[in-house]
Amino acid sequence: MSSLKSIVPSGKVTRLRLFALVIFCLLTVVVSFSTLAYAATPAEQGQAIFQQKCQGCHTIGSGRLVGPDLKGVIATRDRDWLVSFITTPDKLIGQGDPIAREIVQQYGLPMPNLGITEEDAQAILVYIEAQSAGGKPAPTPTQTTIATPTTVSVNTATGKDLFTGKLALKNGGPACLSCHNVSAIGVIGGGTVGKDLTTAYSNFGETGITSILKTTPFPMMKEIYTAKPLTDEEITGVTTFLKEASSAPSTTYQNPGLFFIIGGVAALLIIGIFQWLWRGRLAGVRRPLVKGGS
Amino acid sequence: MDVRAQLSMVFHLDKCIGCHTCSLACKNVWTSREGAEYMWWNNVETKPGTGYPTLWEDQTKYRGGWEMKGKSLRPRMGRRTGMLTNLFFNPFLPSMDDYYEPWTYQYGHLFTAPQADDQPTARAISKVTGKFMDVEAGPNWDDDMSGSSVYARNDINLSELTDAEREALFRLEQMMFFYIPRICNHCLNPGCVGVCPSGAIYKRAEDGIVLVSQEKCRGWRFCVSGCPYKKTYYNWQTGKSEKCILCYPRVETGQAPACFHTCVGRIRYMGVLLYDAERIEEVAKTPDAGLVEAQRSLILDPNDAKVIAAARKNGIGDDWIASAQKSPTYKFVKQWGIALPLHIEFRTLPMLFYVPPLLPMLASTQNGSYDLGNSDFFGNVEKFRVPMKYMARLFSAGNEEIIKNALKKLLAVRAHKQAQSVGNLSVEKASASLAEAGCNADEAEAIFRLTALPRFEDRFVLPPYHREEVIGLDIEPIKQMGQVGLGFNQPPRRGP
Q: How many contacts (CB atoms, under 8 Å) link A and B?
């Protein structure tokens, strides 16, 4: 009895605490069950994720955008392979998976890792399966989210200014030039962190470019532009500029060595100026003395 | 009158034998650390010579000390804006070669060398690169006039001499040299304090010791070039500058600084001087020829009732005033006027004074015999081997009268004692010599006693600091024991 007594809590305060604990546990259980009860079906969940993360580049039954049309992909590919490619495309491509490589070659662009969990990937697949099986084709981004480019009149010059950063982006995002180069913007060119976008328009087409700018699906762009998205006018402007840029003959193709030559000359110039400014500095006392002595 | 106390020093160069014991005592106590290898807070130089670092006296190169620009006194480093533009690159610093590349020897090789025809040797290894090196310079490379064709000949104090005089100096029979031990002068108008951009250097209120705050120092190294005596050094390990601290932990506990205490020739004297801080700027602006006299006038008579009253008003304790009254430095500098500052034309008003050396007179070999050319053993000032122009450049900003008077007095003291104890000089002649030097028998006797027969407590009259009482107020004595000494309780960090 005595040993039991020591284990079983007694006293008013202890009982109150115990009561509170039980209530808390019960509440937790109730809340989690209620969420479960309200959770969407896998297909609905899949739709939500698809619209959020995939729609920028893919359609289901509406043809190719940046990436392939995913209608019927469940039938042609192994399900496990699909899950691993959706969750970690970079890994598969890096490992030299033959199918992944083929896709990259075909579409000219590797699919970025979008941080999709395995659970989400399964949901997406359920959604794609449902859509492929004869459901109405999923709305393409152009139909739903993107304003038709032609409706807004933004000329190429404005697009160029937006690209180079002469015109600041409305939501405060950095200019495209920071990371990308296009041959049409001059000798010095843009950044080399991202891809050269000279041929981007011809590769992806108007819809592709627009959807990329809208959804910014690539990891780095995602980081940068999710909080500071481009407005519809800006997207139209930049797209128009890229169209111009790709159609224009690349007369001023960027010479990567030129940048270093200019940098080197400037550095030498600055060093020269400093050498002149500090020409009176002390360059050793003892050594000249010894050399000058007998 | 703004009376302040300064712990001042006198070095009697006639007694210096150039043994470098002072330098080693200092090195062992304070600078045997990484980053401080090349620092010689105390060093001994041979004159003529270029000293350490090489040609430190040449301020056209290092831009130390102060100069008169119109009516204002300015650091030779330039104005504030000029210094600001040089903040990240001080163009007037001595290079490592001007100090020396610290080295050690490959002692291990002596034991591990394989058997061979020749004896193994311990080659010099650079402490900087760790590679074998040819030792080309050291902190006393021109000691005893070694390499005199390069070093002694380039002593800038010889610039006033004619070519013939200069040639004569290096002739064997006339060749002369003497030693100058140098520590921080703890100046009244310190150049290092004046140019420090961080405000890290300060002159201690109670005794005038100049210190670098290791907390505030940012390692700009302006003090290194700003000090005309090149007595601040940059520690590459801590990224801060350091200098002679006049062994304040020793002085505060009633002990003479390490270099003073160990001095073999007993050339060093220490005592308190009272001075008028109000007149520092005015004195520092005095034209060159009047600088020594002006600085002397700055030093106040500790027996003057007015001075005592003003000192008390400034918070100087009676025991410090009593210490100043007994100060040996006051006697040498002010009363007798035989101790002179080194290079006072840098206008930092150094508080380390030198009794100039009596270098024997000029002799020549004539008719196969060594002819002293004078019946007096020491001769007279004009016949000294060392040209007065040279001594005046060192000790009296070019004013030959001052250095001659000091040397005449030193000669007169010897004549007086010779007449008294050896008898090879007549008393009349000795008296004439004394009269010419403006000295009397009593003063000569006093100079003789303090020069030749001083007791320990005559040489070092240290003021009572009462540190034991100060420490007892806020720190536990046992705790204090573990906290004193050089180094950091919290290691210093580089950068801001």
A: 48
- Integer Cα distance of A241 and A232 in angstroms: 14
Question: What are the chain B neighbours of A279 within 8 Å (beta carbons)?
Answer: none
User: Domain tally for chain B?
Assistant: 1
Q: Where are the domains of chain A?
A: 42-141, 149-247
- Tokens coding A220: 């780095």
In a domain, residue B85? The reply is no
* Tens-place pLDDT, residues A161-199: 888 888 888 888 899 988 888 877 776 778 888 888 888
ipTM for the whole complex = 0.83
CB neighbours of residue A194 within 10 Å: 16
Q: Give the CATH number of domain A42-141.
A: 1.10.760.10
How many Å apart are CA A51 and CA A58, to the nearest integer? 10
How far apart CA B479 and CA B482 sit, in angstroms, is 6
Task: Identify the three-state secondary structure at position A90.
Answer: helix
C-alpha dihedral over B425, B428, B432, B434, to 10 degrees? Answer: 70
Question: Which pLDDT tens digit goes with each residue over A193-203?
Answer: 888 888 888 87
**Minimal CA–CA distance to B187: which of B111, B259, B110, B283?**
B283
Q: Which of A273, A286, A287 to mutate to test the interface with B (most CBs of B within 10 A)?
A: A286
DSSP assignment letter at A242: H
Domain that holds residue B403: 265-459
* pTM score, whole prediction: 0.70
Kindly report the nearest CA distance between residue A284 and chain B, in angstroms: 6
- Homologous superfamily of A149-247: Cytochrome c-like domain (1.10.760.10)
pLDDT in tens, B175-228: 889 999 999 999 999 999 999 999 999 999 999 999 999 999 999 999 999 999
User: CA–CA separation, B309 vs B261, rounded Å?
Assistant: 33
Nearest residue, CB atoms, A289 vs list B89, B94, B154: B154
Residue A249 in 3-state DSSP?
coil
